[in-house]
Write a structure and sequence with these properties.
Length: 182
């Protein structure tokens, strides 16, 4: 029996960061090493995605074939985790909560450090990895984890290093998820 995909919603307060980050996270989770079937969706209207004038991105990122996909009503209903990079879009989070979406919302740049630390000391059954990631995100939030990252908040979208750091964060998240069951 095939399980439902693990739905990650990207709810960044900056649409450009959200769209590019969704593409990077989707690509990082689309590897053969990924522990579970992940579906990354961005909380941005499809018209904005197609009309986006992409920032100057490093060549390595421009080569990525994954595309950002706008979240559907089903994706929102089935969300397991909500992430942001330059800061959480609190208006969208409030709307999600009003719709009954209870998925934890974290700044991935900060949360990935906690998940990596957890992965070092864990050996999780493949069927439990999703629950462990969600539980870790909840614990991160309850222990004072922030929905903002001072480094990302002060983003320099025209800086190549900024986008490489986001790509690195996405890759680290995917690796930590994989290592949870190793």
């Amino acid at each position: 029996m095939k399980s439902e995909p693990f739905v990650v919603l990207v709810s960044d307060r900056d649409a450009t960061v959200g769209i590019v980050s969704a593409m990077l996270l989707s690509s990082a989770l689309a590897t053969q090493r990924t522990t579970f079937d992940a579906r990354v969706r961005v909380l941005v209207e499809p018209e904005i995605i197609t009309g986006l004038e992409a920032p100057e991105l490093p060549e390595e990122i421009r080569k990525i074939e994954e595309v950002a996909i706008s979240a559907s009503a089903v994706d929102i209903k089935n969300a397991n985790l909500i992430v942001a990079f330059s800061g959480m879009d609190l208006v969208k989070i409030k709307e999600l909560r009003e719709k009954g979406v209870a998925a934890p919302a974290v700044n991935l740049c900060q949360f990935v450090d906690n998940l990596e630390a957890l992965a070092i000391h864990s050996d999780v059954a493949p069927n439990d990895v999703r629950d462990v990631v969600v539980g870790a995100a909840l614990q991160f939030g309850f222990s004072g984890g922030s929905s903002n990252c001072s480094i990302c908040e002060a983003k320099e979208a025209n800086s190549i290093d900024y986008w490489l750091n986001i790509a690195d964060t996405c890759s680290r998240f995917a690796q930590a998820v994989h290592e949870l069951r190793s």
